[in-house]
Structures are given as structure tokens and as C-alpha cells.
Amino acid sequence: MARVRTGIPGLDGLIGGGFEKGSIVEVAGSEGALKSTFGLQFAIEGVKRNEKVVYVSLEEQKESFESTARVFGWEKNFSRIDFRHIDVKQVIASLGVSYNADGPEHLAKKLLQTFDGGIDRLVLDSATTLALYSSRTSVKLTGSKKWGFVKPSCGDIRVMLYYLSSELRESGSTVVFLAESGKGELYVAEEVLKYVCDAKI
To answer: How far is the C-alpha of 28 from the C-alpha of 189, rounded, in Å?
Structure first.
């Protein structure tokens, strides 16, 4: 099985030379555990090898990652990453009533439309945010047009992550899902991902 080097010092030697090519890997940790830095370094290693790399952020803007890249001296290679910031709330709003009818699978399809073919490495930051908004009962628009959270639907989250993972697996990309670790309903994505990913760190 071909391997994809992570670029993380010491890690590749422990896992047989890198992640399996075409695999889906969950990288989970608590807040402040440098998950995004891990994902960014994985992406940087890809562009160093002239691979097509896409980094999708559902929270932080590009400027935040540029700042991290400067700290580590990665500015030149960072500029070669196809960085995409996606506002999941806007995607849901664009679906309108169809989201309530078709739910998280429809949202997954919409997100997949933003990924063109031939991606070697894809980082999704973070699966936790995506899972929260994929649940039809986890977000609601109040009368003041503000978003609020209620209890997430584990069923919707499973459908979303299973569908997204299966489609990405068929694409042949090596995918890293970043996820928050913790206890409670807001962290259900970490639990679901361990059943759809090939490995977890």
C-alpha cells in the first residue's frame, strides 16, 4: 500500500511511512491541542511534493492560518495551498426548504460540489462544526435572525459524515478530518468519525 508522508516529525516512522494513500484519518483533540497546525503541516508537506492540496476551514479565516504559517516559516508553501473558507450557515440558507426535506445528505452533496477532481490531500477543519450544522435540530434561526443551538440529532450527524466520507473515499484523496474531543452532545462528531475513518490520532 502506497503511503502519504505527513510531514510531522517522528510520526511517519511510527506509522509505517505515513498515512495510507486514499485513506480517511481523524485527528482529534481538545481545544488548544494544535489540531489545525497538524492539518496545516500535513497540507504543507503535500505542496512540497507538488501535490494538489485543499484545506477547508469552516471556522477560521485564511488570515489566521497565514499567521501560523509565518510563525513556522511556511509562508512560501502556504501560498500554494488551495485554501477555502466555507460558511456552513450560508450553505444551509442557500438550500432553503430543501434542507428540511432532504437533510444532511443534501448538505453533504452541496459541499462536495465545491471539491473538484484530482485532489491529492484534503483537510477538513473541523468535522465538529460541520456536524453541528448538519443536524436539522442543532441550529435554529430565531426571530432576530440569529443562529442558536439546541440538542443535535445524532442520526443526522451520522448520515452526514457517513455520506461525506464514502464520497471522499471514492475520490481517492487522502483526507484528514479534524475534530474536537470532549464530553457531551456537542462532541458527537468525534464518536461518529471513529466508525467511518480508517485511522485516528
So the answer is: 10
Residue of higher predicted confidence among 72 and 157? 72
64-74 pLDDT tens trace: 999 999 999 99
Integer angstrom CA distances of residue 61 from 21, 55, 92, 94, 173: 28, 11, 19, 21, 23
Identify which of 100, 124, 104, 102 has the alpha carbon closest to the alpha carbon of residue 114: 124
Q: Is 118 helix (H, G, I), strand (E, B) or coil?
A: coil
The terminus-to-terminus CA distance of the chain in angstroms comes to 20
Q: Could you tell me the residue ranges of all domains in the chain?
A: 3-200
Alpha helices, H only, 73-185: 75-78, 88-95, 97-102, 104-112, 127-134, 154-171
State whether the Cα torsion 78-46-164-184 is positive or negative: negative
Residue 152: which of 95, 201, 192, 124 has the closest Cα? 192
Q: Which CATH class is domain 3-200?
A: alpha beta
User: Hey, how many other C-beta atoms are within 10 angstroms of the C-beta on 97?
Assistant: 7
Closest CA to 69 of 26, 46, 30, 36: 36
